Amino acid sequence: MTRSVQALAYARPSALESSQVGAVLGLETAGGLTPRGAEAHPRFFAGFLSAPRIAARGLLAVADVAAARYYQRALPASLDPVVTGNGDRLRFESFSGCCGVYARLDVLQEGLDGERTGHGTTNVDVNNPLRDALSRITADDPLHLRVGPEELAVTTLDGPVVEKKVPLPDRWLRGFAEAQVASAGFDLRAELTAAQAVAFLRSLPRGSGNAARGAQWVVASGSGLRPTTRPVPGAVCLPGPERLVALQRVLRHATALRVYGPPVADGAAAASAWEVVLPGMRLTLTLSPDSSRGFSGEGGVLEALATDDAAADAELVSVLLAWEPRIEPASLAEQSGLSTERVRAALTRLGTAGRVGYDLADAAYFHRELPYDADRVERHNPRLVAARELAGAGAVTLDGTLASVSSGDRRYQVRESDGALTCTCQWWADYRGKRGPCKHALAVTMVRRGATVAGGVR
After folding, report:
1. What does DSSP assign to residue 116?
2. Hey, CA dihedral for 42, 48, 53, 58, is it positive or negative?
């Protein structure tokens, strides 16, 4: 697995302290991007939380996922959550070390009482002493939240005094991109009352004993959700139900549970999203199709990455984002002069660089700028790199709807039917398109679209 070391520098540790205004939760930020450009310690918010106890538990849930591996648990992993200020809300995001669970806490405008939320994205320090302090918040006494340095300290910080260096696998970055692509194809499948949500989530196993049972399914019923032995229409896949354990942090405060998933497709395991609605907040966990299978290999972004049009369109669309909390493709199409289809492809490409996410409750994209090397996601995507090499080496021969691809000492046949490509390779035999195109089909797509590849266009 390709990985690098991510250095996070904070002015001081995040902490929960007492002051003249009562308890103050100071969340320290590392380097990130804002409308003013790169900043060492951006400041996004200062004010009171309307539901301090719930916000503390929600933040702990996001930190739980960041520190967890739900597969191959012996290998520890932890990366500080990402925080984005979108003008009217704060979003805290994390990804599990095994790349199979994406978590996001949205603290909405009604959950914040203070200055207008700033714009930008960075990491936020969540250390062990802070986790202990947050877990001790048991009442909704006034709690002042500060995200970023104190106002008077913004221009007087001498430099970082706290550094964290953590491994940053490329598949972790690809997982962020694939999770938002998967979410964009979900629909609301069920909405449970608070009592139904509590009953259902508390009935789920906490251990990993069911991880090997394969895909499990649930379907909406009058009493909430019930298991189903087969994926009937409207059913939602629940892969590795023990991976929802982080929701237990906020369960007693839930007002509803919304469940999202894609249309049922021939019984294959699928990703799903589980959103707990809270007073002034939402906590969402998105699960990959299998506990042993992270989002990074799903291949949902490859078609968009294979076109030169998407690269140019993404540059155009990116200047229109402006850290908006709701990005509508139709509106971007009108502003940019592009078709809605090209805007969606551009947003997918921007998602591979961590520049947009997808909010299921709003059914809209949102702008963020992950504080990592954006180019690495495309540069180290194995299938994309291999496809570019094949196309650039002249390995693709076109003959109408049929194409031949030479790879090593073998030749593979790629056929187009109703806009979809099939291949004679083992990848296609194993997954039949459910995890994106194989490298041969991707190379054919590049050549047919005249994409610029290593060695020229063939």
Report:
1. P
2. negative
SS3 (DSSP) at 288:
coil
Tokens representing residue 281 in the block: 């907040």
DSSP string, 30-65: -SEEETTEEESS---EEEEESSHHHHHHHHHHHHHH
Q: Facing residues of 89 across strands? A: none
| Whether the predicted model's global pTM rises above the 0.85 cut | no
Q: What's the alpha-carbon Rg for the chain, to the nearest Å?
A: 23
Tokens of 262: 């894609």
Give residue-wise pLDDT tens across range 310-368: 778 888 898 899 888 999 999 999 998 999 988 988 888 888 777 899 999 999 999 99
95: Cα within 13 Å, side-chain hemisphere: 25
Q: Are 380 and 431 in contact (CB under 8 A)?
A: no
Contact 447, 458 (CB under 8 A): yes
Tell me phi and psi for residue 185, to 5 degrees.
Answer: -100, 10
**DSSP-derived secondary structure letter, 70:** S
C-alpha–C-alpha distance, residues 266 and 262, integer Å: 12
* Separation between Cα atoms, residue 131 and residue 187, nearest integer Å: 34
Residue ranges of domains in the chain, CATH in brackets: 7-167 (no CATH), 177-293 (3.10.150), 302-377 (1.10.10.10), 382-448 (no CATH)
